[in-house]
Please model this.
Amino acid sequence: MDEEDKRSLEEIHDYWKNESLPEHYLRHSGRSELLYNHINKYIDESKQVLEIGCNLGRNLNYLYENNYKKLTGIEISEEAINQLKKYHPHLIDHGEIIHSSVENIIEELPTNQYDLVFTMAVLEHIHPDSEWIFKEIARITDAYLMTIEAEKSEHWRIFPRNYKEIFEELGFKQIEEGKCGKNVGLQAYTIRVFKKV
Model:
């Protein structure tokens, strides 16, 4: 990436606060089904689940409709939260939706609180100055961690990383890896599932 293309952490946050395009995310239910099919292999409906970067809650809603009720989401965009309240109000009533950047809340979350933590196209946007949150994600995850991220793409708001290397150094073992495929529009994305050891 050219030096002139680099942006600050504040610029990245401002983008996602103001340009999250929540209604765009309503259209991609196939992605939520892909996610559910992987989650359902590893945990049952009684478990605690956290999505980092939940936008308007499409993924959490799909899990809710499939009997997962202990759901938490973190979202930086106020507009996305407003759309979540409009389209999926039950997630507010029956779950926990945290309006915050992950940097501002993750240290407050209890250790081993969530049976499964997942991200979909979110960690790729974490600014290099905030890579300390990966250790915090490891801390709050009790059993499983799932990442669906574009690991090789590069853009002013996308930072390439190998999440297998990152999370195996933080006490996890990768137990599944695959490509997401064109049918859900995530052909550049890698899905990884980790188990805490």
Q: What stands out?
A: The longest helix spans residues 29-42. The chain has a mean pLDDT of 92. The two ends are 35 Å apart (CA to CA).
